[in-house]
Amino acid sequence: MAEITLAGLGHAYRPDPRQPSDFALQPMDFAFADGGAYALLGPSGCGKTTLLNIMSGLLRPSHGRVRFDAQDVTAKSPGERNIAQVFQFPVVYDTMSVFDNLAFPLRNRGIGEPEVRSKVEEVAAMLELGPDLRRPARRLGADAKQKISLGRGLVRSDVAAILFDEPLTVIDPHLKWLLRRKLKQVHERYRRTLVYVTHDQNEALTFAEKIVVMHAGRVMQVGTPQELFERPEHRFVGWFIGSPGMNFVPLERDGDGLRIPGTDHVLPDGLVGPGQGRIELGIRPEHVRITGSPGAEGVPVEVERVEDLGNYALVTARLGTATVMAKLSEDAPLMPGQAFLRLPPAWTRLYLDDRLVH
Amino acid sequence: MDKIENNKAWFLVLPVFVIVAISAIIPLMTVVNYAFQDIFSPQDRYWVGTEWFESVLADDDLHGALIRQFVFSFVILLVEIPLGIALALAMPARGWRASLALVLMALPLLIPWNVVGTIWQVFARADIGLGGWLVNALGIPYNYTNDPVAAWLTIVVMDVWHWTPLVVLLCYAGLRAIPDAYYQAAAIDGASAWKVFRYIELPKMRGVLLIAVLLRFMDSFMIYTEPFVVTGGGPGNATTFLSIHLTKIAIGQMDLGPAAAISIIYFLIILTLSFVFYNVMTRMGTGERA
Amino acid sequence: MKGRSVALIIYFVFLLLPIYWLVNMSLKTNQEILSGLTLFPREPTLANFQTILTDPSWYMGYVNSLIYVVMNTVISLSVALPAAYAFSRFRFIGDKHVFFWLLTNRMAPPAVFLLPFFQLYQALGLFDTHIAVALAHCLFNVPLAVWILEGFMSGVPKEIDETAYIDGYSFPRFFVRIFLPLIKAGIGVTAFFCFMFSWVELLLARTLTATNAKPIASTMTRTVSAAGMDWGLLAAAGVLTIVPGALVIWFVRNYMAKGFALGRV
Question: What is the pTM of this model?
Answer without folding.
Answer: 0.80
